[in-house]
Design brief:
Blueprint lengths: L1 H12 L9 H12 L27 E8 L3 E11 L5 E12 L7 H22 L8 E5 L2 H8 L7 H13 L5 E3 L7 H6 L3 H5 L2 H5 L20 H4 L3 H5 L6 H6 L29 H19 L12 H19 L1 H8 L15 E3 L5 E3 L10 H4 L2 E3 L3 H13 L5 H8 L3 E3 L2 H11 L1 H7 L23 E10 L9 E8 L5 E6 L4 H15 L4 E4 L3 H14 L5 E4 L9 H18 L6 H16 L19 H4 L19 H27 L20 E4 L11 E9 L5 E8 L2 E6 L3 E4 L15 H4 L31 H6 L2 E2 L5 E2 L6
Parallel strand pairs: 1-4, 4-5, 8-9, 10-13, 13-14
Antiparallel strand pairs: 1-2, 2-3, 6-7, 10-11, 11-12, 15-16, 15-19, 16-17, 17-18, 20-21
């Protein structure tokens, strides 16, 4: 534990590997290294029981686990207590666990709760590893009154951090098995702070537990604590932050730096230290600070106690100044100390170029050259603030105050009062995280275009890989009011087209068109199409009727026509040909079908390779070369005398046909496939979707503010590992969407680390909250259900028992995972 804490301190200092350590850290490390030579004298028995004591016949077997926490870390230790054959009791050390305190500031009661959770897990692990029957009692001990009150009460009464951990503790252990022990009899104190080797050798408390384990098995009556109902059943206001009553103790232990804040220069009173990182809005931070300062003032001056209901403007201004001064002192400690002593700021200081000075209100301000202007005092000498959580709160407040203004306008307004370090970066971050701005400005996600499928870039017979789509409607003279549609069949390798005129978009009409196509072109091996109901029904019918002989039908991602761009582009060619060929004329159905076949022939005569002006070059390759053996059906053809046709001439012609076909495929490989675009413009990686991302789903012809919301539930990576489609869960179900249809909203989970992010839904207007497997939806259609379950979380019935009511009165359940 000593070495763990030392590593954490070195990491916080940011020292390089070759930089010398300070005297205090060096001395700590030397003591630790010197103690290695003394460790061989430590003896821990390998067997839990003494000789002659059988594990199966042991009497009075008990497991005792102790938990404790300090500002350095938290830990727990377990012991086995059993009856000896000669009478009396034996106690054996089993195992221990310890963790360093997180870098992010956590109050001491919460650290004690983490120690209790670690102890509960250790108790379950020891019972399982030793294969103890369920009848063996397990006792857990802590010296924290607040943590003990949390463990013995209903989890639904507390906020999320406490609620979830208490719920797991009560799942692993019986709340009635927890008791209070004095700090002097708690061996886990060594696990939370660490011991040197010489201290470990002489610590009987760590190796054998407290003395009362060898006698009664229970701590002395004077050290036991009765947890009163008042502490367990606190009111709703006190229930929000029970651990705030120990903030003074946490500051004394070094958890929070003891910063002295003067409300005014020369004031003799000291204010509390306010954890700004716990608040998500500037208004809440200022008001809480003002209420605490009024409470302190009423305690110090009872004769002039202020019992008014509302905070005054002066109190709010003073509270805001207290927060700013606290932040300045914590971030610029050396600069503040030098200015208080009348010295200049060091040239190596990051504030040197700002020429800071200590103003009359006790705040660091920037000295400028605008003293003679008619600007306000704040504009002449703005307040200096570091890049910190308070600065983010100020920028966020100003951003909303100015109706979600842009970065430039926001910076111009902030410079009237504050000079924030890295203000532009903070402003960009605030604007990027603002939900209202994201709903209007968030771009669509995107990923690079995927590689072409193997079936499209390998040699195959025409129309063995076919893409199908409909175009229309068309009208005829002989059947007025009836709509006709063009069914387009596109070859994926040769880029040839086949057009069929259908009477409707229904399944029977499409099946007849597919049969006509197959009778002339042959059944394809692979069919691509969109997700139209007709195509899906036809695929199911072919599987039922043709069984294994049915073509493999592949559907593209819904509402993503660019996935079928190689046949969608030819739909436009057909429409352009119809407009130019027909103009304003109206044809009969037979004439319309004839024109479609002629357009089909023209499209199949288009060049696939580059057309040069050099007469010596070969003829450009066209789809007709693969269909009929020549470039166009409209050109002249050689007519031979049938009387001169012989078997040898026919065989020679077949040989020439095969050689020409091989030549066509060679030109197709070298001049067509190799010249396909390597990259698709405007398809770049953007969005970074992952499971749990909150997104808006783009809907055509729907206002942006009415697009449905959802959460990404599953990713579908391609063969190259890039995700181009995902499953999105909304209040109406799960949909598969292309990433280009999604607009990501950068919303942070309520259970994650929110040191620089919104902490409550009231601040940003939205918070992602788990509600078990049922799920609820907000007005915009977001499903807030994430059914992530694991074996070590409370069951659904336990979650229902721990349900609680929010401030608005809505019944909610704690998340199954956070």
């Amino acid at each position: 534990m000593v070495l763990k804490v030392l590593f954490q301190q070195l990491w916080l200092l940011g020292l390089e590997w070759d930089e010398p350590l300070g005297d205090e850290l060096s001395e700590t490390f030397r003591r630790w290294v010197a103690g290695l030579s003394e460790l061989p004298s430590v003896r821990i028995p390998r067997c839990f029981m003494l000789k002659g004591v059988c594990w199966s016949n042991v009497q009075g077997l008990e497991i005792h686990v102790f938990a404790d926490a300090s500002t350095k870390g938290y830990g727990c230790v377990s012991y086995v207590r059993y009856c000896l054959p000669s009478g009396g009791f034996g106690v054996t050390f089993v195992m221990a666990r310890a963790r360093v305190a997180p870098v992010r500031t956590v109050t001491l009661p919460r650290l004690e709760l983490l120690a209790c959770l670690l102890a509960a897990r250790l108790a379950r692990h020891v019972s399982t590893a030793l294969e103890l029957p369920s009848s063996v009692p397990v006792f857990c001990w802590t010296d924290s009154t607040v943590a003990l009150a949390w463990v013995r009460s209903s989890p639904a009464k507390w906020k999320q951090f406490v609620r979830n951990r208490v719920g797991e503790i009560q799942e692993l252990t019986d709340p009635s098995s927890w008791g209070h022990v004095s700090s002097t009899d708690n061996p886990a104190d060594a696990a939370s702070r660490g011991l040197m080797a010489d201290q470990l050798i002489g610590s009987s408390l760590w190796l054998r537990g407290p003395e009362w384990l060898l006698s009664s098995g229970r701590p002395p009556a004077e050290s036991q604590l009765f947890v009163s109902e008042e502490l367990v059943n606190e009111g709703p206001e006190d229930r929000e932050d029970t651990d705030r009553v120990l903030s003074t103790q946490a500051s004394a232990d070094g958890l929070i730096p003891p910063v002295v804040l003067m409300s005014q220069p020369g004031a003799e009173s000291r204010d509390c230290v306010f954890p700004v990182e716990r608040w998500s809005s500037l208004t809440k931070a200022v008001r809480v600070t003002a209420w605490v300062r009024r409470f302190v003032l009423n305690l110090r001056h009872p004769e002039s106690r202020d019992l008014s209901a509302e905070l005054s403007y002066e109190e709010l201004c003073q509270a805001k100044a207290v927060l700013i001064q606290q932040t300045q002192r914590a971030s610029y400690r050396f600069e503040y100390s030098a200015l208080e002593q009348g010295k200049a700021v060091s040239r190596s200081s990051p504030l040197y170029r700002l020429a800071p000075y200590l103003a009359e209100d006790g705040l660091l301000r920037r000295r400028g050259r605008l003293q003679m202007s008619d600007l306000s005092a704040d504009e002449k000498h703005p307040i200096i603030l570091p890049k910190c959580h308070l600065s983010r709160l100020i920028v966020r407040f100003q951003h909303r105050l100015m109706c979600h203004a842009g970065v430039g306008t926001l910076l111009c307004a902030l410079r009237r009062t504050y000079w924030i370090v890295s203000a532009r970066r903070i402003a960009k971050s605030v604007k990027r995280e603002c939900l209202a701005c994201q709903r209007q400005d968030s771009p669509a996600c995107c990923e690079p275009a995927g590689p072409l499928p193997r079936v499209r870039v390998t040699e195959s017979s025409p129309f063995s890989v076919t893409g199908i789509d409909f175009a229309g409607p068309l009208f005829s003279v002989d059947q007025p009011g009836k709509k006709f549609y063009v069914c387009l069949f596109t070859c994926g390798t040769t880029r040839a087209v086949h057009l069929e005129l259908t009477d409707a978009l229904s399944l029977p009409a499409f099946v007849m068109a597919l049969r006509r196509f197959a009778a002339r072109r042959g059944w394809p091996a692979v069919i691509y199409s969109d997700n139209a109901a007709t195509f899906k029904a036809c695929a199911a019918r072919l599987r039922d009727t043709m069984a294994d002989s049915a073509p493999e039908w592949r559907f593209i991602v819904p509402s993503a026509p660019w996935y079928g761009g190689w046949w969608e582009r030819l739909v436009r060619s057909v429409k352009v040909g119809l407009r130019k060929a027909l103009g304003r004329r109206c044809l009969t159905r037979a004439e319309l079908e004839t024109v479609l076949h002629e357009i089909e022939s023209c499209i199949n005569s288009r060049p696939l390779t580059f057309v040069t002006d050099d007469s010596a070059c070969d003829e450009p390759l066209t789809p007709n070369h693969f269909l009929i053996g020549r470039g166009s059906v409209f050109g002249p053809d050689v007519v031979e005398d049938p009387e001169n046709v012989s078997v040898s001439s026919l065989c020679q012609r077949e040989s020439v046909r095969r050689s020409r076909l091989e030549q066509f495929w060679r030109v197709w490989r070298e001049d067509y496939v190799r010249n396909l675009p390597a990259l698709v413009p405007n398809f770049k990686s953007r969005g970074g979707l992952r499971v749990g991302s909150v997104v808006m789903i783009h809907r055509d012809n729907v206002p942006r503010l009415q697009w449905p919301w959802g959460t990404v539930e599953r990713l579908h990576p391609g063969k190259d590992g890039i995700v181009r489609s995902v499953d999105v869960r909304t209040c109406k179900g799960v949909y598969t969407c292309a990433v280009q249809r999604l607009h990501r909203l950068e919303i942070v989970d309520a259970g994650s680390d929110l040191s620089d992010s919104p902490r409550d839904g009231s601040d940003d207007g939205f918070s992602v909250t788990d509600h078990g497997s049922g799920g609820t939806c907000d007005s915009s259609g977001v499903s807030r259900s994430r059914a992530h379950r694991s074996s070590n979380v409370p069951s659904v019935q336990a979650a229902e028992r721990m349900s609680y009511r929010t401030r608005s009165g809505r019944v909610s359940r704690p998340p199954a995972r956070y």
